[in-house]
Design goal:
This protein is about 40% helix and about 20% strand. By secondary structure, the protein is α+β, with helices and mostly antiparallel strands. The strands form 3 sheets. Strands 1-5-6-11-10-9-7-8 form an 8-stranded mixed β-sheet. It is elongated and about 95 Å long. The model has no long low-confidence stretch (mean pLDDT about 95). The chain binds histidyl-adenosine monophosphate.
């Protein structure tokens, strides 16, 4: 017996309707906001993530599934969706299409993390990336799209936390202030923080080590260092969110785990699923397209973790639509009536009805038992007498009532009943 790899999950047939519900809500949200689907490969050249996600991040340093392919290329399974979409945008010259360009994806992602509730090694993201628009309205629209998606799922108990981490100009000032603050404490900080001190001091704020957390608690706050443009932008985003009825709190501690962010960053946090509370997160990345070799174009996006949303919905008793069940099961008694049952079911399916007949060569009694277990709303049994009279007895499994229906009128009967 070979087991499933650690940190991965099967989606079993009786659970897949929950996934479909979440994915449908993602697609419906995308449609309302006029966002088109894109699909990029599950693997990319490793360098894309080194340069895109950033070499000082945990994702790149510790968590990537990287291997050499048979041609000697370094390949990485995507740890997140943004870098691949940016590569696609640049490689296909999409900057010359009308802006903004709004895209979404539903994709598996891979991170070699320590598995725990809500943290997997293979997980799935619904993500949105919007290119070409620098306005605060874009930030507000994207956050509103994320919040619309969560509302569609009935996930209302999350808190939206927002922050601005500034642009290149204010970040330079802020990095200097951070270094001045951290320098005297460096001896007491972890090796990762010490390495980040030179390369990217902002990342030190994300350290989970208790000793480092105590020191970072009093570090200077980015919001005090924003340049005029970033400050105005952030104020406008907040005003627009309020105007849209989107509640938020400003959390100056959010820096995000990936390097590409600028200006607005945000996370929808839940307290109902344990330590891994971020169900949806994102922000602006105005330099990434250029850094990866494209035009100097702003961009913004978010991604929601499907497994975390599922966990949250299950933990908070959110309602899912009913699982898929046959509307009718048609049972036969012998070769002739079974053949008829098969014919009827084929006809019903051509009319778009979820109908089933026996594939297991079971007795009528066993067919009935299976039909009941499968949750069929109606069960019809055709015997010799019924066939001779050209009728069938249809049993409503919910109330036990039986109705004789002409064999040629099963479809119209079901249609009437469905209303
Ligand atoms: P992220 O915060 O790394 O951002 O991931 C986004 C979401 O993916 C998280 O909030 C979480 O719900 C889910 N997630 C992340 N890691 C795991 C894991 N190991 N197991 C289960 N779920 C996980 C990004 O990936 C950015 N690309 C988001 C973005 C798009 N920013 C701009 N555009």
């Amino acid at each position: 017996m070979i087991n499933i790899p650690k940190g991965t999950k099967d989606v079993l047939p009786e659970l897949s309707y929950k996934w479909r519900f979440i994915e449908n809500a993602a697609r419906e949200t995308a449609e309302i906001f006029n966002i088109n689907e894109v699909r990029t490969p599950v693997f990319e050249h490793t360098e894309l993530f080194l340069r895109g996600v950033g070499e000082t991040t945990d994702v790149v340093n510790k968590e990537m599934y990287t291997f050499e392919d048979k041609g000697g290329r370094s390949i990485t399974l995507k740890p997140e969706g943004t870098a691949g979409v940016v590569r696609m945008f640049i490689e296909n010259g999409l900057a010359s299409t009308p802006m903004p360009l709004k895209t979404f994806y539903i994709t598996p992602c891979f991170r070699y993390e320590r598995p725990q509730a809500g943290r997997l090694r293979e997980f799935h993201q619904f993500g949105v990336e919007v290119f070409g628009a620098k306005s605060a309205e874009t930030d507000a629209e994207i956050i509103f799209a994320a919040s619309t998606f969560l509302n569609k799922l009935g996930v209302s108990k999350t808190e939206l936390q927002i922050n601005s981490i500034g642009c290149r100009i204010c970040r330079a000032e802020y990095n200097k202030a951070l270094k001045d603050y951290f320098r005297p404490h460096l001896g007491k900080m972890c090796a990762t923080c010490r390495a980040r001190f030179d390369k990217n001091p902002l990342r030190m704020l994300d350290c989970k080590e208790e000793d480092c957390k105590k020191i970072t608690a009093n570090a200077p706050k980015i919001l005090d260092y924003l340049c005029g443009d970033c400050k105005t932008h952030f104020e406008k985003v907040k005003r627009l969110l309020t105007a849209q009825g989107v509640k938020y709190v400003v959390n100056p501690r959010i820096v995000r785990g990936l390097d590409y962010y600028t200006k607005t960053v945000f996370e929808f946090i839940s307290t109902d699923i344990g330590a891994q509370g971020a169900v949806c997160a994102g922000g602006r990345y105005d330099n990434l397209v250029e850094e990866l070799g494209g035009a100097a174009l702003p961009a913004i996006g978010f991604a929601a973790g499907i497994e975390r949303l599922l966990l949250l919905m299950e933990n908070t008793g959110a309602s899912f639509p009913a699982a898929q069940k046959p509307l009718i099961y048609v049972a036969g008694m012998d070769d002739i009536t079974r053949a008829k049952a098969f014919e009827i079911v084929a006809e019903l399916r051509l009319n778009g009805i979820n109908a089933e007949a026996d594939l297991m060569e079971r007795s009528v009694k066993a067919q009935f038992k299976y039909a009941d277990k499968s949750g069929a709303h109606y069960v019809a049994v055709i015997g010799g007498n019924e066939l001779a009279a050209n009728t069938v007895n249809i049993k409503n499994m919910a109330d036990g009532t039986q109705t004789a229906v002409n064999l040629n009128e099963i479809y119209s009967y079901l249609k009437k009943e469905k209303k």
